[in-house]
Amino acid sequence: xxxxxxxxxxxxxxxxxxxxxxxxxxxxxxxxxxxxxxxxxxxxxxxxxxxxxxxxxxxxxxxxxxxxxxxxxxxxxxxxxxxxxxxxxxxxxxxxxxxxxxxxxxxxxxxxxxxxxxxxxxxxxxxxxxxxxxxxxxxxxxxxxxxxxxxxxxxxxxxxxxxxxxxxxxxx
Length: 172
What we know:
The protein has about 170 residues and is of the alpha/beta class. Helices cover about 35% and strands about 25% of the residues. It has a 6-stranded mixed β-sheet. A two-stranded antiparallel ribbon has the order 2-3.
C-alpha cells in the first residue's frame, strides 16, 4: 500500500491552522469602553511639572480649584487634529474650565510648529518628552480626554476621538 504524503501534509497544516485560530480567539481581549469612571489610572491630577511650547514650566496641580480637561495627543495620530480643534473651541466657550493639551513624547519644536500651523489657540499646550503623563494615567489610545473636578479628582477618562457635545455635557 502506497500512502501519498501530500494529503497528509494538507491535513497537518489544516489542523495547525485551526489550532492557531482557536488559540487566538480564546485569548483575545475586548476593548475597554470609551468612557470609564475608574480604570486603574491615578485617581487625582498627577503631581508633575511640564513645560509649555514657550518653555515655561507648569505644575499640573496648580490647576486644582477649577474643572480641568486634559487632552493627551500626538502629531502622528490622525485623530489629534480633531481633538485639538475641540480643545480650542471648548477653551473659547467655557470660561470655568481649564483646558490643557499634553503632547506625547515629541520635541517642543515639532509640537509648536504643528500647533501654530493648525491655529490651535487658547488651550495651554504642554510638552512631555518622556511621556510620563500618558504612562501615569494608564493611557493606551490617542487622543485621550481626562476630566478632573475642582478638587483635582478624576471624574472621566475618555479614550479615542470624542464628540464635542459629550465633552460639553461632562464639563458643565
